């Protein structure tokens, strides 16, 4: 039987609302101010402090991705600079996020065009779910860990001073809009070529022609990273130093790789859905950024394992790349991620975000990874030695939270953290062995494939 909202039922709902005076107070407040701020728990704020028992050597300055979806790049480079700054005795340092962003855009567009051809050859229809999903966002700013490995191993890294940000790296909306339109145009042409049965060589030549236009657009908006660079700097002792005529890949291999080797990291997720058992490897259909590059690969483990390995990494002075759903139970101003930071029942009369289990939120579309950051500290319980709270380096500048750092409670970690990346030396052999097993392929639209970006402006 269906419910029809008759005038009698609507009158009942209205009378029920006005019957409780607390609803009027809540309405007065929430119609004038941010409803989330009205739910903020003063008591909980008094209980939480940004102080931790174990902390890595954090590095300045606090980074800022601004109005772009580069969080995953920032999180990696923030992790990479921790041992780099210590090794070379630097006061502060940033790797060039724009350098990796440029090459990701070029590679990602080429990957999309080739994926369109592959999907068309499968017999997928443009009106079908897979094509519709791919065309929705052909060149997302966001990305996953193995995409970073592809970029760093092929293109290396370089100091930010040698390739600084541009307008479109800090605010990517306009450039992305142009690229998406062209990529959809080229997707139609390629799909037609496959339907007409054109030879593979002709299709490849067309992709090369399309990529000339794509590369030009990206280069105009972002600039082109130099093939070689010279980096001049002062160390902490004010000693002048210089690295001359260095290729970015050479710079990574000679100066960084021994300190932070991206190929030695293991990506673990915690996906509790019954359809995806723990102890298995997973990948996502059509997810990648480089033709011929590494495919995205996850090892699924209980969330307690992710917390344990992250703790070991922090204790060894190595930051942990983190994928989470940043917006749930989040006080942006105070930089606190906590299940009790908002008192929804006192304002709305119902609890929010905890009515479904973590697995059910994934199944029913109420949860997915939206942001990447870097764990830099943990507090362990003095008796159980289990984590109680975490410190996270964000990439939204220093005007939020504790000068840009967030605090994550362990309860929040268990509900809204989905992914961590740790060095393989911390990972038990039985888990490492999963890397040798053919992964289960999840559909392209699966939430485990999503690492979209929450722009800082959404919290201003």
The largest pleated sheet is described as: 12 strands, mixed
> How many strand units?
14
Q: In the CATH classification, which architecture applies?
A: Alpha-Beta Complex
Give the overall pLDDT as a whole number.
95
CATH class category? Alpha Beta
Protein model, in words:
The protein is α+β, with helices and mostly antiparallel strands and 460 residues long. It has one domain: Cathepsin B, Chain A, CATH 3.90.70. It contains 17 helices and 14 strands. Helix 6 packs parallel to helix 10, helix 6 packs antiparallel against helix 11 and helix 10 runs antiparallel to helix 11. It is globular. The C terminus is likely disordered. This is Bleomycin hydrolase. Keywords: Cytoplasm, Hydrolase, Protease, Thiol protease. Pfam families: Peptidase_C1_2.
